[in-house]
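Sequence in, structure out. Go.
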Amino acid sequence: MRRTALAALCIAAAATAGLTGCQPGQDKADSSTSAAGASAESGTPAAKKEAFAGLTGGEIAEQATKATTGASSLRMKGDIPDDESGATISLDVLLNKKGECAGTIGMGGKGKADLIKAGDVVYMKFDEAFLREQSEGESKADTDAAVAMLAGKWTKSKATGEDAKEFEDFCDLGTVLDGADGADSDASRGKAATVDGVPAITLHEKDGKERYTLYVATEGKPYLLRIDSTAGADQGSVAFSDFDEPVPTGKPSGEILDLDALGG
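Output:
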């Protein structure tokens, strides 16, 4: 399952790319700038009082960066292209700054793996479709044996093990967001939108051929709610929610297969 762990790390990097995009310059505030084609939810009426009145897009992005990187935990959910496999990786994980995480990871719509990292232990549960996808190139006998042993069962291994150590960084929110703080932004303001019912303002950033649309909450703390990569090599979308919520890191119930013990 090592490839999947590495792919998940790539998602984390892509998810924070919009926070650290183009750095020089700032556009003046302009609430008339049109939103990108991939808007969150259309038809939402504008707020009675303009959010972030008088602020540039860069200044709004700075507030969003400060609020988001200040969260003790958050949920990342999205679908991101994986350059290595050519497939699309799906991610729905709640993680915190203690290095704990819980959620699901999928590859190209072909199955999923449930994940819990608590302390120095990683628990994972793979479905049959996921195991067969990840076993591509292996013999049918080996693949069938892996499915028989692992499918639908919780496994555990130390986070420092070869196949699990990649989660050390992926499950640490501080590491995932490292480098996002302190960067200037030249984002331009877009229209009002909503993300899962939360009012937001859109911001648009450019980084070479890459194009990003950012959605920033206009009520409560100005959290970054979503990033859409709308042009360039790695188009995809990642949403952020459940800020400062506890990560459910309880040990799974029932039988747990110890992969370290099986490895010898």
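Check: Residues 1-40 have pLDDT under 50 and may be disordered. The CA atoms of residues 161 and 260 lie 8 Å apart.
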